[in-house]
Amino acid sequence: MKNKDKEILYQHIRGHECVMGSSRLTILALNTLIKSIRGLKCQPGDFRSLYMDIAGALKNAEPEITPLTHLLKEFETEMEGYFDGNDLKEIKGNAQRLLEKKIKKINADIEKVIIHGGKFIKDGDLIIVHTASSDIIRMLVKAKTVSGKNFKALLLKQDFVKTRMLIDALSEASIPTTIVPEYSLSHYIDDATKLFIGASSITKDKKIVCAPGTSNIAALCHLKQIPIYLFAISLKLSNHAADEQKIHIETEKRRENHCVYVLTAPSHDTLDFDLATRLITEKGDFSQTEASAAYFQNP
Amino acid sequence: MEHALLPVCIFLAVYIALSFEILNKAVAAVLGVMTLLVFRVIDMKTAVTFIDFETIMLLMGMMIIVAVLKKAEVFTILSVKIAELTRGEPLKILLLFSVVTAVLSAFLDNVTTVLIIIPVIIELTAGMGLNPKVFILSQIVISNIGGAATLIGDPPNIIIGSKAGITFNQFIVHLIIPVTISFFLVLFYIWVRNRSLFKPIRDNLATLFSARLLFEKIRHDFLNTLIRPRFLKTSIAFLGMVIMLFFTQTITHISPGEAAVLVAMLLLAATRVKIEPMLEEVEWSTLLFFAGLFILVGTLEHVGVIEWVAKNVFMRVGDNPYVATLTILWVSAIISGFLDNIPFTLAMIPIVQMMIESTGLSGNILWWALSLGACFGGNFTMIGASANIVGIGMAKKYNQHITFLEFMKFSAVATLLSLIVASIYLSLYLWIIL
Known about the structure:
heterodimer, A: alpha/beta, Rossmann fold, 2 domains, 7-stranded mixed beta sheet, 8 helices, B: mainly alpha, 22 helices
């Protein structure tokens, strides 16, 4: 794959990740891969190299999509015996079956995180919601509509597309919501009881790669001793350190009121894992100490 | 002819000012009119009689209808559906978008078509790593070709239809053949010229993946668009109504201008949209430009300049109908390629009328020659038609810079091909009717 094509691909990936989070993006990417394989016309002998071309680009995405990288590696191991078959239809069929298995796996993990996380929503809570993670949204909606919890949400406004998704979902579930700009959180922080955040990945050097703006909010919550709940499937644990996550730095020339400047905006924040009070994964919920012991000392 | 010098100078000054975009079109035309009035070349009462209100009404009515259709997201839905149908195959993108552009151009104005199609085709092709320039240029050229097919497709046709009393159906029946042949021939030329760009992507998994991921993004953006089904259906029904009225003009005796304004008002009443934003979408400066030009050309006719040009330039080509027809076609094409085709068409109307009278040619053949020449000729250079200028400007907004020479390199052969088709068609037409 040419560098120019990779750049375009990563642009699409960032666009999706920004509005749906890395778990949903992984599912979307796997589904897209299945559809692309279905439409592929090539010699059976070329399948492996064509797959490796796109898989190589996806595993080196900017930023890294950790769950996708893990699942593609698993897929490649399982596919090894089928890659070099003589019948393209059979190769494609096997690839599709194994990829569907990966989708089932990540979906099941997400469902478990939602179930475990739901336990932390209590009556009377005022929960700060920042990320557009569809898993957190689903958890809040389920807590209200299925478990009948009476809580409120403090929604921090980001760019319109993300905020609109959150507004639509929360209002549809009749969750009382106050929407404030990200920078006005300090006015409401004393009433807040919890901060819910998601992650793109959790690095081996104990950093959380998350949506831009999360660091400031988490720092303020930490200062005010508001518990921070991190929701992430284990597939988000990366084998790489934070500085290997290839966080994209977008530079854009802007002109506003006769002032011309270059705006530099990183695609993600990094945050110390130690700021998270609890980690909720598909395996259950862990305190900071338990999570550190489980994931970072004996990974 | 003794009072002709001032109107001729004013007309030429306005022509130069608007062809080279020295002044805003409306300002140039109205400034010319005001000079005529101040120097008492004509009085205000006479000036108003030169304005062709049929053309103004048709333009205004269609602009309002298009504004409501835009609000109803008709064009967003259309673009997304077409994008999905292409499945990312470059050749399908060219073919399907070209068909849509040609059909839209035939029933809406070319500038609106280009404004709708160019952003979608740039997002699609750039998002797939293809060179968007070929696709942008192809859609601009196709919009000018498609616009030639109907009375409402391109301003020269609106003017010819109104001034010569030609109906919507007559336009379609007589021009659909050269337009369709030119459309396919130009598409074939674009394919031959850029064959490597249109290679199928089905043998490349990475490109297939990128394309499908892009479609997911387009679909996701589309899902965030607020579609109101009732508003949408009503808008489409009224668009159907106006087209139906165009087709049945000979039965209903409702002129295209009347039909457009009538349906526009009914649409506003039925949908109960806020009127002000819809009226803001009307290009009042274009309407003002047209009104000003009608007065300028009317004055030239009034003082005898047009008659002089007709007698001393066009009628010198002789009585041979083939020579007369092809002269109008090629002269119109060459002039429209470099200068604005709207004032040119307006100025040619009385000339063609005189030529019809002197040659006794029937069947509106000279009108078809003028229409095909003015519409197809607009493709020759970047400044030949409004759609070209707007399309290039729109591409620039998306970081796709197209130079004058780049445009001409692409469009010159396409223009030549379409003019050859038009020449053969008109010659055959003459051979049949004579």
